[in-house]
Amino acid sequence: MTVFEVATGPGETPPADAVAPRDSTADAPTSVARLNATIRDFVARWNTVWVEGEITSWNLRAGNVFARLKDTRSDAQISIRIWSSVRARIPSDLGVGDHVVAAVKSDYFVKSGDFSFAVSAMKHVGLGDQLERLEKLRAQLRHEGLFDPARKKRLPFLPHMIGLITGERSDAEKDVHRNAELRWPQVRFRTEYAAVQGERCVPETLAALARLDADPEVDVIVIARGGGDPQTLLGFSDERLVRAVAAASTPVVSAIGHENDHPLLDDVADLRASTPTDAAKRVVPDVGEQRALIAQLRSRATTRLTHRVGHDIAQLEQLRSRPALRSPDPIIENRAQELWLLLSRGRDTVARQLDSAGRKTTELRASLRALSPAATLARGYAIAHLEGGVILRDAADAPAGTALTITVDRGSVAAVSDGEVSEGGPTATT
């Protein structure tokens, strides 16, 4: 029996006037409602099965959960629904990335033609394989110091050019441009487009990062993408991309997804923005706020300067009101009289010292003359000198024929000793 051989079953009754799917022809086709009812009735015969997988999306609507479960060894996925009555019986901490086993029963909606599985039970198996690998990589990069705040570069206050890596014609690009230009109309961008999910995401983002990092005009780089489930954001946790961002010389801002999204790029980037809009607000200053700040600072400077000038004027007036500055002539006259007295005393002291020094000099000169050989010569004495200027003191030192020089009061004469000895000593012939 095939699905098209099922005519009736539980649930809604197919339209009576519609041809059964097994009897349909080109001239007598079945209706969509009859086909969906037939599929629904066939699917309803399937039993509940236990399936293992990783939760890749988890959306709560009106107390019910609409999620997707992915095979951990392939890309196969199924849609699952958890009604509020079942949700109260399963662990409350279930979410994206969890590795679970679930009891599911097929569920086909006749009205929309959607096929999914209703969950009647679910429990943890452990972290999903992907999440577990990411956590191990996160721990390794943290150990290497790539998340250290000390190595993160400061963003420029007002970048001359912003490098933007995002998807072409994406909402993230529009959000960044719109909010940045609202804050600073003259802001400039160099945008490099790259796939933001799938196999092309990592190589294209790496190439865009390399081009922007090599551009000396780019002051900061923003990598932006809208929200998505962890499966679509995996590229931004790729080890190659994370290490390239850590090695970039230009500051990098991560603006991936929403506040609750947390790829590894957020940890290694120099700044993590919760959304692309938040990135624009944190990279570019608000021109209105800066103008208000300048006006405030100018007002404060004017107030401080006015106060300082007023204070200095008051001090100057206080100094000018003092007697010494108001009428300085008496002080100058008193000081002039005092200076004249000191000058007179100085002159008297110097004169007395000069007189005393003159008298002492005269006395010393008289003593010096009394002791001088010139005074002795003036009385008629003479001094005999041997050759070499040696004074003759002993007659024995001047035998006959010795040349002598006789010094008298006025000049000197040459003489020769005759060697004769007398009571007064040797005689000399001049």
Automatic annotation (TrEMBL):
<feature type="region of interest" description="Disordered">
    <location>
        <begin position="1"/>
        <end position="27"/>
    </location>
</feature>
<keyword id="KW-0269">Exonuclease</keyword>
<dbReference type="Pfam" id="PF02601">
    <property type="entry name" value="Exonuc_VII_L"/>
</dbReference>
<comment type="function">
    <text>Bidirectionally degrades single-stranded DNA into large acid-insoluble oligonucleotides, which are then degraded further into small acid-soluble oligonucleotides.</text>
</comment>
<keyword id="KW-0378">Hydrolase</keyword>
<dbReference type="GO" id="GO:0003676">
    <property type="term" value="F:nucleic acid binding"/>
</dbReference>
<dbReference type="GO" id="GO:0009318">
    <property type="term" value="C:exodeoxyribonuclease VII complex"/>
</dbReference>
<dbReference type="Pfam" id="PF13742">
    <property type="entry name" value="tRNA_anti_2"/>
</dbReference>
<feature type="domain" description="OB-fold nucleic acid binding">
    <location>
        <begin position="31"/>
        <end position="122"/>
    </location>
</feature>
<keyword id="KW-0963">Cytoplasm</keyword>
<comment type="similarity">
    <text>Belongs to the XseA family.</text>
</comment>
<feature type="domain" description="Exonuclease VII large subunit C-terminal">
    <location>
        <begin position="146"/>
        <end position="360"/>
    </location>
</feature>
<dbReference type="InterPro" id="IPR025824">
    <property type="entry name" value="OB-fold_nuc-bd_dom"/>
</dbReference>
<dbReference type="GO" id="GO:0008855">
    <property type="term" value="F:exodeoxyribonuclease VII activity"/>
</dbReference>
<dbReference type="GO" id="GO:0006308">
    <property type="term" value="P:DNA catabolic process"/>
</dbReference>
<dbReference type="InterPro" id="IPR020579">
    <property type="entry name" value="Exonuc_VII_lsu_C"/>
</dbReference>
<comment type="subunit">
    <text>Heterooligomer composed of large and small subunits.</text>
</comment>
<keyword id="KW-0540">Nuclease</keyword>
<dbReference type="InterPro" id="IPR003753">
    <property type="entry name" value="Exonuc_VII_L"/>
</dbReference>
<dbReference type="GO" id="GO:0005737">
    <property type="term" value="C:cytoplasm"/>
</dbReference>
<protein>
    <recommendedName>
        <fullName>Exodeoxyribonuclease 7 large subunit</fullName>
        <ecNumber>3.1.11.6</ecNumber>
    </recommendedName>
</protein>
